[in-house]
Specification:
This protein is an all-alpha fold. It is 78% helix and 0% strand. The protein has helices spanning 15-45, 49-93. α1 runs antiparallel to α2 (49-93). The radius of gyration is 21 Å and the shape is elongated. The two termini are 33 Å apart.
Length: 97
Amino acid sequence: MFEFRDLLQWDRFVTPSIIKPFYTLIVALIILLGISGLLSGLAMMAISPFGGFIMILVTIASTIVSVIFARIACEFILITFRINEHLGALRDQGGMR
């Protein structure tokens, strides 16, 4: 994890340390929204069974796609920081001028 003094210094990036809890928070939010959509679809089935069924299917599909997209976005951020670390190591070795 990171310490408070890391927020005041620029020697170390904070984002790689907080991206995993951020991803967990985003997934929890997506699941809560998915549950809300499922409950709305069940309530809609009382009015229109076909519309409610379609809403449930769309909610399930969008929840799955949203979790996958959140994972891809977080991995992209981590890869960007990892590339920066590797380029810094190459520069320190004298590989790049």
